[in-house]
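User: For a benchmark we're assembling, each entry needs the component sequences followed by a predicted structure for the full assembly. Here are entry 17's components. Please fill in the structure.
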Amino acid sequence: MKKPMMALAAVAASALFLSGCAATDTTEEATTAATQSTSTSTDTAASVSLLESVQAAGVVRCGTRDALPGFAVLDDSGEHVGFDSDFCKAIAAAVLGDATAVEMVDLETADRFTALQNGSIDVLVRNTTWTATRDGSEAATFLQPNFYDGQGMMVAANSGYSSVSQMKGAIICVSKGTTTEGNAALESSRLGLNWEVRSFDDTDLILEAFIAGQCDGWSSDVSQLTGFRSAYPEGAAALAILPEVFSKEPLAPAVLDGDTAWAQAVNWAILATIQAEEFGITSANVDQIASSTQDVSILRFLGQEIESSDGSAVLDPSLGLPTDFAYQVVKQVGNYGEIFARHLAPLGLERGVNALWTDGGILYAPPYR
Amino acid sequence: MGSLSSTSSRVPLWRDVRVLRWAFQLLVLAGVFAFIFWLYNNYQVNISKSQIQTDLTFLDNPASFTIPGNDFDQSQPVRDALVQGFLNTLRVAFVGILLATLLGTLVGIARLSGNFLLRAVATAYVEVVRNLPLLLLLTFMNLAVVLQTFPRIEDAWLPLDLFVISNRGLALPWFEGSGYVLLGVVVVALLAMWLTVKIRNAQADKNGKPAYGLRIGVLIAVVIIASGWLLLGFNWTLPFVEGRGTVGGLRLDPSFFALLVALVVYTSSHIAEIVRGSILAVPKGQGEAADAIALSSGQKMRLIILPQAFRVAMPALGNQYLNLIKNSSLGATISYFELTQVAQITVGNGSPAVPAFTLTLLVYLAISLVTSLVVNYFNRKLALVER
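Assistant: Structure for entry 17:
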């Protein structure tokens, strides 16, 4: 897994050095009318939105991962399955009308923003926390979070710990490449616990260290801990997740800065799943609702013709998406509740804060009109 | 007549070898510079186009993570974290180079031993270890030895009640007080020892009596360290288990131990082959001459064979040292907080990847170049001066 990514990174790095000449030439010459036609075909990043180039290419390159139970794992046939993978498919369904037109690009945690920056992926849906620093310095624009998570602590059920504040001087094991070390260090100093935070490349190594008793606690986002717990060799009952959540982790898809059209398109693909659940539209009943409902807001949302005094019309909000994108997302992938039930509920995760606003959660889509 | 011949013998500029040589050199130089400039320009353009941050301002941001086994606060800047990682790299590399040289030399000598058993064991060691990938060796050390063989902290081994051995690390008896002061005492002692050996040997050369330089030197060093210890009031502290950790003594991180052992074992197998080859490269007559003047086999090895063998071995050993230093970056996989690990963590916690890793790259380059310089210096010192 790692080797191809490293190779890709090396190629990308050398491309930084070697590829520039053509691009600079074309941007300079773009001012002259003579070379206008040739330059527009080669110069993609500067002026043409990814939305157009993705539609031209007919495939969405989605940055993801391959071994996080519930969010993105490989099934027996080598396909990506999971919550994040479904959102990749929803984006493809919205933009291209085909949920299968997606190329999953597996990324290491440390490589993910570089992959976005150098254009080897179109969108990053890889349980990535939206933070101010990443917004600012990683050239990423974060969109509607598809999962509101928080960092928690998992311990052995027989450890005697029932609260994070009891874990004085404990060894805490975390995965490298994300903000977990920082959150753990902050919590440790806040509560005066003097934790030793060890961070590993690979969750398998944490698992081994945890089983052998080298770590007292395993800290990560609660959703991930739930996934690891469900796959624990000695059974989920041998582990306990402590009640405290000590960070805010809104996991959000991200696109490259400076491409508003593409960002809006991806954003509305995510929002469509939320809005569909609010309307009670599922992949099973979407056809029936589309043909029978009289509710104008649902007809608008699904891109159906709305009869009025001066003939029928379809709402096109000019997002650059097909007018029936929401229909395609729901039909081919499902609404938010379906995606959650398919991948996260089996791990034992509750909807909690990830419920609709009408159910006491914070999922709230802007009106589609 | 004279002036005529001198003008006719003058070669025109475009056929003058000296001019042509210079012109060609300058042309190549200009080409190289143009190429580098082209690469740099592309880099700048692409970097600015993809909006990747390249400046080093992130070094002043708070690190916001801790480093196990180091006195490092999360509010210290990223710069300090990287320095700690750098020191940890040096720590494991320095100890690793010393131990690998020692073990490798012993195994290399054992490979040539007349004792069949010793020779067979050494051969098996070399052939098995040097044909394994280092990462595998390291993973094995971590998973099979540290995690599985060492006990949990609850049932830690307590040999002689001096050590605490568990899969959370090895705790040794250690002194209390400032490490720098003790280091100063040790440095003074070593200097005194070196001076003694020098002076004694010089005297021995003059009056022809046995020098005993090393013995007297070691004695003086021990006396200096012991008196320094007593005068400056260092105390022993013994480690003991408290809760789920150890208190007192010096605690070696389990990942430090795993990485050190893996590096030493792996590199020593290569060094053993270099030492064996170098010993074989010493002319046979040297050994026979040593036998002829009735040196013991230990004296023969120490005084005659090894000094000449190391002259041959030095450049190859230097390569192994460079490999060991760079291989120490594999410690990042098992949570040893060396430079690569710290760089990866600081990138994960908000530092921009490209400048952070470029900096790391340059630091490794610098360490390697300095090591090369040192090895080359000794190589020149040791090299046979032929006239």
